[in-house]
Design a protein that fits this description.
This protein is an all-alpha fold. Helix content is about 70%, strand content about 0%.
Length: about 80
C-alpha cells in the first residue's frame, strides 16, 4: 500500500497546481481498492482544506466508484481525444 502513497506523492510533485483530491482521484483510478482502504488513504493523503467537511461523504462515495472503473476505459477515452 505504500506504493499508493509513492504514486500520490509523485503525481503531486509533477502537478503542483492540482488539488490533493485530484491527485488522489488520479492515483486510485481503476485500481480496485476496498472501501476501507480508500477511506483510510483519503484521510492520510488529502488536505482537509481542499474540501468542505459536509461534502466528505459524497466525495468518498465518488472515489469508491472511481476506484472500480477499468483502466482500459481511461485509456480508450485518451485515444478518442487524439
Amino acid at each position: 500500500m505504500k506504493s499508493l502513497e509513492r504514486k500520490f506523492k509523485k503525481l503531486e510533485s509533477r502537478h503542483p497546481y492540482w488539488s490533493s483530491i485530484v491527485c488522489f482521484t488520479e492515483t486510485i483510478y481503476g485500481i480496485g481498492f476496498s472501501r476501507q482502504a480508500i477511506h483510510n488513504w483519503f484521510n492520510k493523503l488529502v488536505d482537509k482544506n481542499d474540501y468542505a467537511r459536509e461534502d466528505k461523504k459524497a466525495i468518498l462515495a465518488f472515489l469508491e466508484s472511481i476506484g472500480k472503473h477499468s483502466r482500459s476505459i481511461k485509456n480508450d477515452t485518451k485515444l478518442a481525444r487524439q
